[in-house]
Design brief:
7-stranded mixed beta sheet; Glutaredoxin; single chain
């Protein structure tokens, strides 16, 4: 018999992808470090650049050792976001590592983090397409377990404060 509660499935942080340097990585590659994960795409015009700027500013403000707090940007648009495209896009955000992979690999990562994205049916003015998606930043502990997520609507000071709390309560 199925359970009667409508509790959503838990976030299961896991992926098997390629970083923007062309190396195969999974979550075990970051063991021993706190990990921040944001899903987006390089052709995003508003949400992703704003989120990556906020994430970069928070990393700078926290002044954490880059080996102890790692930020990952996982694409929801693997057809366009090759490792080379991700690497060029993330030059502006040097503390953030881009991850891509096959459509199936990305779908598995999205499902594990409970991320929504869908390619728009209507082309943009320039003939491209948008990919509306979940705009959350996830915090994982050094063992790869989910600690918290932060909505994109948080302003920078609140994001930093909540992140600091998550790092403290998450075992630091």
């Amino acid at each position: 018999m199925l359970p009667t509660t409508s509790e959503p499935p838990a976030i299961r942080p896991a992926f098997d992808l390629i970083d923007h340097h062309g190396r195969a990585v999974d979550l075990t590659a970051f063991r021993g470090s706190f990990v921040l994960v944001f899903f987006g795409f390089t052709h995003c015009r508003v949400v992703c650049p704003r989120a990556l700027k906020k994430l970069s500013s928070a990393l700078e403000a926290l002044d954490e050792d880059p080996t102890q707090l790692i930020a990952l940007y996982i694409t929801v648009d693997p057809e366009r976001d090759t490792p080379q495209v991700m690497r060029a896009f993330l030059e502006t955000y040097p503390r953030i590592l881009g991850l891509t992979g096959s459509r199936d690999q990305i779908e598995i990562a999205k499902r594990n983090f409970r991320v929504f994205s869908r390619r728009s049916a209507s082309p943009t003015e320039d003939g491209n397409y948008d990919v509306p998606h979940t705009a959350m930043t996830y915090l994982l502990d050094p063992e790869g377990r989910y600690i918290a997520h932060f909505n994109d609507s948080l302003d920078l000071p609140e994001f930093i404060e909540r992140l600091r709390i998550g790092l403290t309560e998450g075992g630091r």
